[in-house]
């Protein structure tokens, strides 16, 4: 299980800088999380202005 970024992402980039394991990168139209690297800390969800990262 990992966090997943929804289509609500506005590509502000805030989450990528907060991820302790560097699991977030810029994708096509939204930022994406590497599910194999994510440790489910929730930091990305905490800084996202639109609530796009969600635990699955
Ligand atoms: S939950 Fe934590 S480890 Fe997973 S992508 Fe978000 S900031 Fe990175
Ligand atoms: S913080 Fe939220 S809106 Fe900004 S890039 Fe990450 S998921 Fe997208």
UniProtKB/TrEMBL annotation:
Cofactor(s) listed in the protein's UniProt record: [4Fe-4S] cluster
GO cellular component, one term: cytoplasm
Name this polypeptide is given: Ferredoxin
Known function: Ferredoxins are iron-sulfur proteins that transfer electrons in a wide variety of metabolic reactions.
Domain 4Fe-4S ferredoxin-type: 1-28, 29-56
GO molecular function, one term: electron transfer activity
Record flagged with keyword Nucleotide-binding: no
UniProt-listed PANTHER family: PHOTOSYSTEM I IRON-SULFUR CENTER, PHOTOSYSTEM I IRON-SULFUR CENTER-RELATED
Entry keyword set: 4Fe-4S, Electron transport, Iron, Iron-sulfur, Metal-binding, Repeat, Transport
């Amino acid at each position: 299980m990992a966090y997943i970024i929804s289509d609500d992402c506005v590509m502000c980039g805030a989450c990528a800088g907060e991820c302790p394991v560097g699991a977030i990168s810029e994708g096509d139209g939204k930022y994406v999380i590497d599910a194999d690297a994510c440790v489910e800390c929730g930091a990305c969800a905490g800084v996202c202005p639109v609530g796009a990262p969600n635990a699955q």
